[in-house]
Structure formats: structure tokens, C-alpha cells
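Contributing: when you submit paired examples, paste them exactly as shown. First protein:
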Amino acid sequence: MFLLPRQTLYLRLSARQLAICHVQSGAQFADEPVVALSKQGRPSQIVAIGHDAVALGDSLQWLLVNPFSHPRTLLADFALAEKVLAYFIARVRPRRWWPQPFTLILHPQDKLDGGLTQIELRALHELGLAAGASKVQIWTGATLSASDLLSATFPGALGELHPV
């Protein structure tokens, strides 16, 4: 068992949806992990994320990209995935003049056949750090309940907390 710090975020990752919860406050946010990129002006400028990006649609002006959609692995584009995670984190973290460090529990839910490789674990760990977390834990298994998260118990029968 590990002790939860004052700020812990639980993020469930899939190619179809990202769902994040601030454990202590219960604040939640879920959306599609889709990014609309501008085809004009600065290259790869993010115009919108989530439902707003989907509403724009693919066109001559915008390119829709899902950084979590790849045939073999959950992480397709590290740089865009980092921006999407930072966006989701900002939606649930309390706004403060001096932001507190936080722990991010990443829960990948797609492309888990055969388990995660050390490379995938490392990439997810680095992704969480790049998005602003001071500590990253990776959980595979059943969805953790609010009581599991608040008590900082990660039931071994339900999954595995991966050391990185």
C-alpha cells in the first residue's frame, strides 16, 4: 500500500475516451481524446480538444488526430498525448496561484493483450511526468472505486500496480 498525497488524480485511458477524477475533491471530467490541428499558420497548432475538436471535423483547415489511437499500442503520438493529458488535468485540479505537486494514477484500458511491455510502461510513466505529475503510478485491472482510491488500497485480486 502507498499513501496518497494531498492531490491525486486517477485517469482512465482508452482510444475512445479519457476520464479523469481528482480523488480528494471528487471533481471529474471525461471526453474524447481527439485534437484538431490547424493546417494553416503555425504547423500543428492545437485549435480544439475533445468534443469541440470533433465538432470542427476534418476539413481543409483542420486535421483531427487521436494521439491514443494506434493499431498496436495505446500511445500513438507522445507530444500530442502530453497536451491532451495536461488539458484533462487542468479541468479537475483546483486553481491555485502556486500549484501543488500531484500524483497521477494512469489506468490504460486498451491494447492490454499480453500485458504492457516495459517500453509501454516507461512511455506512460514519462507521459504522466511530462503532463505535470510529480509521481506517476500505472494500474492495470478493474476500474478502481472511489473508496479504493481514497483509502489508497489497490486490490491485488483486481489488478496490478506497476512499478516503473
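Second protein:
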Amino acid sequence: MTHFREVQKFRQPWLWAILLAPLCVVGWGAYQQLVLHRPWGDKPMPDNGLVMLCAALALFLLWFYSVRLVTEVRDTELILHFVLLWRKKIISLGEIRSVEAVQYRPIRDYGGWGVRRSLAGWAYNVSGNRGVQLKFWTGPEILIGSQRPEELAAILEERRKAAGAPR
């Protein structure tokens, strides 16, 4: 049974401005070269190459738009899945030593967003600066970015105890 489910996507306006800029530039060049028949630049790319470049950029943006972090708490396990980016991580709740809702600094603590590894441990995050810090009996810590960290922490603690994890 699923006790908690959160789906987060990369929807920050500043990020999409950065990602869309190359497509806009290349799209403008393609328009000039293919529609207005004005070569784009001093050494213009062949028309079919320009079309393929636009298509590749558009496909990348479509893929990135589809990437999402799914966090689920089930009876005895926590599932983290960065769909289309990273394999599913399944954690037995009995492995978790402690759970805490935290505020963190994504760039300073983990080098940004996504699936990140740092001296602080692993981070699975999409946006914001709030999440749940997991400490384990063995192995590195994991931070899970969440828009509902208090709720996630409470459910993880409840399910961890129900699963018979040591206190």
C-alpha cells in the first residue's frame, strides 16, 4: 500500500530560460536560412544539418520536460525514482536510522539539483531548499528534496516504526 506519493518536475522559469535560449537562437537561424533563404552566418550549416540540430534540441527539451522525481513510501520501503534519468532506488525502511525534515543549500551542499553525490551524501532533488535527511545504520546519508518535507518525514518515521525498525 502506498502511504505517501509526491511527483516533482523541473519547472523553474530561470532554468527553462537557459534551456530554451539555444533552441531560440538556432530556430531563428533556421528561419532565416530555410524560410527567408538567407545563409545564417559566414559558413552556413547545410539545411538538413540545421533541421537535425533543431530537432535534436527540441527532443532534448521534450525529454527534460518529462523527467520527474517520484517519491513513494510503501508499507516497508521507500522508493525514489528519477523517471527517464536514473534507475529506481528502493530502500528498506528497516535500514533507516533517523529521519529529519531539513532546510538545505542545494548548490553549496550538493552542487545543484538532480541526483547528486557530495561529501554530505546523496541528494535526490528537483527544486527548492527543503527536504528530508535520511541517516542509515550503514552507508551514506540521503537527502530527498520535497515540497512537503514535514509530511514525508512523519510518514517515513511512522512506517519505519510499524516495520519494526530499531529506535
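If you have annotations for the second protein, write them as plain sentences, like these:
The mean pLDDT is 94.
Residues 9 and 68 are 5 Å apart (CA to CA).
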